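Deliverable D2.4 — example input (structure tokens):
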């Protein structure tokens, strides 16, 4: 056996070792060191085989000549396998990272997340779902939506009808009532989305505990009812208006004071309700107050008092003593004007 045959044989042996390594670990070809060794062996085998070809061009022949064409094909196939494997691994790694980020996001969200099928069977949940309902994850996976959703529409037929109305890519929002494992209940706002799937219809439901919001709304409603009762029975006219001097609310006492119904007073902007001189005075004071409002340390609860000349419905003029201040939102920003008018 001459030198070229030995070189070709060495190339074949190196390639065979590469194949053995790949066959041994083709499912777990992810370690950088192992991958690098295989690439190095394929490169070495290719170098040896092609060295033999170079010597043949120099006029030296080998007993391995009939196999060299097949060896070249084998080298190309091995390179192709390695590159495809690398690209596949990168795609798998990217998909894994994306899935990991998504799961991490779900696990750290403050809302309860449920994945369920068309029958309402729970398929997956996040940690918050277990915490909010008091169940272990395995216990929740054995339940259906209607086992803990005791809303008025939560019968099986009504839930089916609701889910049928949820289209792919379109979220539906509703409010309901969830029952914990210990029997206590809490109100929730639920957003439901449909996930298209060839195998089965899947739905993702995101439930937010709105106990505090419901309680806040209930208190606000009670407060509004008390103020409305006071306003409806006060002799002074209580009102709110926007910055365009259009009434938003006015108490029923306006009829006793100016002869107008509430609807008539609401439809009449301030520049039609008072004389020109009174309107000019109002605009000037409003401009002053808005300028002061931007100054640091100014009293946000300050009020201004002035006299305005109002038109009575029958045409005569009445003098009204107006006390007003800026209406503010929860952040202290001026959003309107609130005041009273006394005859």
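Example output (designed residues):
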């Amino acid at each position: 056996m001459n030198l070229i045959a030995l070189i070709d044989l060495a190339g074949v042996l190196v390639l065979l070792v590469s194949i053995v390594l790949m066959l041994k670990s083709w499912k777990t070809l992810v370690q950088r060191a192992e991958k690098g060794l295989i690439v190095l062996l394929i490169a070495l085998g290719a170098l040896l085989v092609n060295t033999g070809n170079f010597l043949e061009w120099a006029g030296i022949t080998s007993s391995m000549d009939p196999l060299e064409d097949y060896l070249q094909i084998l080298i190309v196939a091995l390179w192709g396998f390695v590159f495809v494997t690398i690209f596949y691994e990168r795609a798998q790694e990217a998909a894994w990272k994306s899935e990991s980020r998504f799961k991490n996001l779900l696990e750290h969200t403050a809302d309860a997340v449920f994945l369920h099928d068309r029958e309402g069977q729970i398929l997956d949940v996040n940690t918050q779902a277990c915490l909010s309902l008091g169940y272990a994850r395995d216990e929740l996976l054995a339940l259906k939506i209607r086992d803990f959703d005791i809303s008025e529409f939560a019968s099986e037929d009504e839930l089916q009808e609701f889910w049928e109305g949820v289209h792919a890519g379109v979220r539906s929002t509703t409010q309901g009532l969830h029952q914990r494992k210990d029997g206590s209940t809490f109100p929730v706002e639920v957003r439901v989305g449909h996930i298209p799937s060839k195998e089965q219809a899947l739905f993702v439901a995101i439930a937010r505990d709105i106990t505090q919001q419901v309680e806040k709304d209930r208190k606000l409603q009670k407060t509004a009812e008390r103020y409305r009762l006071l306003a409806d029975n006060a002799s002074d006219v209580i009102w709110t208006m926007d910055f365009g001097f259009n009434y938003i609310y006015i108490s029923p006492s306006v009829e006793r004071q100016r002869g107008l119904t509430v609807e008539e007073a609401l439809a009449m902007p301030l520049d039609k309700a008072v004389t020109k001189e009174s309107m000019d005075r109002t605009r000037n004071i409003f401009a002053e107050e808005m300028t002061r409002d931007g100054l640091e340390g100014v009293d946000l609860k300050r009020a201004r008092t002035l006299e305005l000349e109002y038109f009575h419905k029958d045409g005569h003029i009445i003098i009204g003593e107006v006390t007003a201040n800026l209406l503010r939102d929860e952040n202290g920003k001026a959003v309107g004007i609130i005041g009273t008018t006394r005859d």
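The longest strand covers residues 317-328.
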